[in-house]
User: What shape does this take?
Amino acid sequence: MVAKINGTDLNGLDEIFQKEVTKPLKAGTLYYNWNDDIKKHKVYGHNADVPTDNGLGPSALGTWDGKLFGAAGSLHTNAISYAIFLCAMLKKEGLKKSSFKEMLKEQVHFKDDNILKLEVGQTGWGLGFAQKPTTNGMIHLHTGNNHDFQAYAMFVPEKQYGFVFFTNSDKAQSFVMEIGRIIKEQF
Assistant: This one.
């Protein structure tokens, strides 16, 4: 829809994203399409169950040409740049007030038997962020799991804090469990 409104195709959405999000936030490295900067800085993923030469590891580095803009899961970035984006969400900088309200509002509500609701307490989705109510306020979170690359990001506007971590391995789950054990309800 965004591509059609702007008279471009999916490949052209990254240019719009750079102009309207990355540059105004001074967020640095946030790209959807493959480019020389990504090729230069991309790290290898590590998966204990999959050899690195099967197309997921070093032999595949740089082979994805980035022709498809995948808003839900193809953002190439680093934890620092993504943290800048989360800080903008916390400070409500860079977008209209109404846009922040829509992004953080629960757009999809889970049924009571939803596995995410039952296992981790998420109640639904906003625009890009899962919603998890806690006694400390609403946690807005996003995760990623491409097997040899895993990520977790969360923020709580009411408390003005959040965090993000990225791994280039399949070991994020144990890290998430330990963080949850230490900071409990704030997570």
